[in-house]
Amino acid sequence: MTIALDRRRFLQSSGAVAVAAGLFPRAAFAADPLTIGVIYVGARDDFGWNQAHAVGVKALKALPDVKVVEEENVAETDAVSKTMESMINLDGAKLILPTSFGYWSPFVLDEAKANPDVQFRHAAPLWKPSDPTNAGSYWPFLDQAHYIDGVAAGLASKSGKLGFVAAKPVGIVLRNINSFLTGARTTNPNATVRVIFTGDWSLPVREAEATNALVDAGCDLITCHVDGPKVVIQTAESRGVKCCGHNADQSSLAPKGFVTGAEYKWGTIYTGYAGLIGKGQPLPNFTFGGYDKDMVQNTPYGAGATEPARKAADAAIVKLKAGAPIFATAIKDNNGRIVVASVPPDNYADVLNKMDYLVDGVIGSTS
Amino acid sequence: MTDAVGTAAHLTAAPARRGSAAALRLRAASEYVVIPILAVVAASLIFALFLLALGKSPAAFLDLLWIGGFGSAFSWSNTLSRAAPLILTALTVAIPAQLGLTIIGGEGALVLGGFAAAALAVPFVGSGAPAAVVLPLMALAAVAAGGLWIGLAGLLRLKRGVNETISSLLLSYIAIAVTLFFIEGPLRDPASTAKASTLPIGAAYAVGKMPFLKVHWGFAAGVVAAALLGVLMSRTTFGFAARITGGNIRAAQAQGLPVGKLTLACCSLAGAAAGLAGFFEVAAVQGRANASLAAGYGFTGILVSFLARHNPFAILPVAVLFGGLAAAGGLVQRRMGLPDATVLVLQGFIFVVLLASETLYGRFPVFRISGRQGRA
After folding, report:
1. Same domain, A170 and A134
2. What is the chain B residue with the closest CA to A72?
């Protein structure tokens, strides 16, 4: 998935950014509780994508005058349409948060058309101005947290050989790999990232094989971008190498080798939506941001994070919060080709969103 | 006794005897209704204990089951939508079961059928070809693809003696892999990056919803297919021959029944049903072919068919029960804070108790047509 944000939309939605800033007086909620329906494609305790959302929803549940109804293991078929309708008809939900990519078309779009007085916000950057205005997208820039992983990994790894188990060679994944390498190079200029693509979002057996192969190739720190990183983290721990997480908090799976992990902070967005509705204000159609908007975070350091690694990562987080870019100099891919000669300070401008390459220092191929 | 008296007595006695025969038959048939209902009740009681152990109220669960599955027009629409694909995939299991074959590869036939329908429709998108032509062609492609696939399992059984349960399951994985190859490769919509799909078939070739029910036409197709196949299996020489073969293949062969043709025909019909389910998943639900076609309907269909004792007519109520459980399952999750697996636990209890209840058939004198026969 390429992050399909263009410059104009970025400017249009700059108001949306306010959502993430957490500037909402909680006292302003209406007396009637707002019912919010959340739909997960897998189990809420999967140590991955779904768990990250469930953690965000927990923050939502803590708000007064908000009632949350949740349904897990909802397939990307008719089932999700019926679940949305059921939440609207039987629970009186006014805001629906379907959290899986494949829910969007046709299911969320159709329900949004059929229920104009209900708001739908979906966790992928897919909304276009031609789509229903009561629908929308939200999308945190997780590559910033992967960059921090890299900063810590550059110092936590002894060999500087880092391993990355990736699902598919698509934009969003490539960007996380490239950011991880870029972060690692800030603390260890000789660091390399060896990547293995498994081919799909959830293939536990291949994820274990890939992790083992990376360790066998000499990598002493493994991270990943797959739906549920549990297998990768556990395999890395059992092989006695260090690891960085992805999506949610996996520190408990690797008590010895866990360094830190790239985590979404969906709660910022969710409580922001509830706040806007409570104040009777319209929801933005597009909400996005990274560390600057408190939409991503890194897992608290584990035993694998050395003191210098922690310090370097903390310092890098401060910079990202202030809006510093990840990519500042010309970007060279791992075939030696200059892909972006002049990098704009806004790292999410068009020229960087079409990331279909691996940067210099990554060992692997997109095809 | 004179003939005249005898005839008269026969004439007067006949209606009474016929009436009581019908009553007896009804009583005998009711065994197939009463025992499953008792089994479901027993499973529910076990499940109630399970809920009590979790500290949840069985009454509240039952209440939600009713509200979510059957309590309103919306709930019925929800239930029937979820039942629609299950009817067709259950038929995929039920028809070969008459022959004594256990086919469990409906999932692959569904996916392949859906893919065939989408692949056929995509070139027509924007061509202005009328839906009245393209939709039947899509359905035909889906039915043919599904029928060929399960027919292949039948052929392997026939020619090579390959176990059809294993081969249909393995063929199912191949069907899904082949479909994914095309979806992620030559037939991929370039716009579908994170979730590979074919190009959308568009509104022109979409199958709508049935009036009033708000359920797509796949449900009606399932009902019609179940009825047709039910009649075929219980009221025709074809069905009779199939059941003889299922009962004793050597006897069937000795009688000169075309066992080979029956096997191929039943397997192909079975695959056609799953293919049709795939057609509706593409034309009425997804609007394109993608990995979501493999949503597990083929596997749930196995359960439905077994619970219906492979009777095509009984598949309808069982599929509706499963649809209702799935529909209510969402509400149970939301209102009681129970995990999704709760409804699976109930399904599991029902399945085990129903299978165990098989031994009860013929043990209750009340269902016997003749006491003497029953005791014999």
Report:
1. no
2. B340
